[in-house]
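All the exercises in this workshop are built on plain-text protein records. Instead of coordinates, the fold is spelled out as a row of discrete tokens. Once this layout is familiar, the rest of the handout is easier to follow. The record below serves as our worked example for the rest of this section.
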Amino acid sequence: MKLDALLAKTRAQWAEPVAASLASAHSEPPDVTSITQDSRTVTPGALFCALQGSSLDGHDHVDGAIDSGAVAVLVERHVTDRVPELIVDNSRLATGELAAAFEGHPSALLDLIGVTGTNGKTSVVTLVAHLVTACGELAASMGTLTGSLTTAAAPDFQQALRSHLQEGCSVVAAEISSHALDQQRVAGSEVSVAIFTNLSQDHLDYHPTMDDYFEAKARLFSPEFGADAIIDVSDEWGAKLAARVREQREAGKYPSDHELIEVDGATEIANATLAQRSCSFTWRGHAVDVPLGGSFSVTNAILAAEAVVALGYDEAKVAAALSTAGQIPGRFESVDAGQPFAVVVDYSHTPASVAIAVESARSISDGRVHLVFGAAGDRDPGKRPLMGAAATAADVLYVTSDNPRTEDPDQIIDEVIAGIVGASNVHRIADRAEAIRSAISGAVPGDIVVIAGKGHEDYQIIGTTKTDFDDRVHARAALAELGWESAS
């Protein structure tokens, strides 16, 4: 695509003056064959977008990108005369808008459901894709289970949307992280429905405060996107967000047909029947039995169902489809070898999600709750003692390593244990495999073992080395050592 044609397709106020500036400086616009913000991936014909990061500045890599074949660069200041420059005020915003235009604005040709919140995003997008598919249309999900980042960089995000469109998808449900919203990775997208799950402490190594974290999430529900909003108002931050959206609706900042759907997740959970591998409740008058464990599955299922109905799908079909949902990897996932106690692997890696996982385990077991957990290195250290405090709701605690990365594993464990007050049955075992074996070996009939933190992840990062490690595999091995050979 010619660079001037790309700018003409960009739906942004800055595009026209930038195009005029380029036309006066360059007689023949180059052909753009790709867009990238990573100088290492530049190929001949690329438009290189120079972004300012916290530690790296893409402007420093402009010459290298040109040497690799970039035919134009997007910058926030004059850097080079070697190729045409698109000089803009906000290169992150412009990158998203250019990427959307380059891929043909795929989000305008399908229904994009954006899901944000601290916990539950993966479950909700997976459920949305299942429900739409069960109702007869092709759908896809994007997020933690499909990429290395929760929300891909803007060029990759738009390329993925286009690929799903070409596959025939009518709906794509995407996890939208606070980082992505702050960094404008979904700029240029048209969001049909925005879902807010909850907010609790996480990522404060990136966001200065909880208010900043909230404001990043709230951007998805602003008139900028104009999406229908589905919000769990039993969460205090969700209630705050719903009040803001309601006020903006009344002020006429949204289209007249804009919907705001408020879900009281806490009440829905209180009225539900929970089991190790299922939850039963009534939604819109329909009796629903969802084959997913964990109290949070009630709220996640309702948020997903409301989103699909908001797109126009029949609610009776949606309710029926909830009963055929498949296990979501690492989300209160059972590891069953026929043993007389339960073992579940869960992705809970925040104080709030750990508390909910323990609460869910308590609600389905008359025995003791054994909890294996830790905290990640090179991530928000402020939540570590809070993780310890949340874990005290369990009966037996095994504090271990998560992904320590470049930090000292023992120091991380010290910080977690500092938050444990009033618990006497606490085991400190840095080796995660050993911690899992110890917890399972210590369980008796009627107990439940919750292995928290890594969920679906099949690796562990110690130092800068990434090695194979899957909690589910190690749990099965521990069960096999005890004579339970039919683990599945």
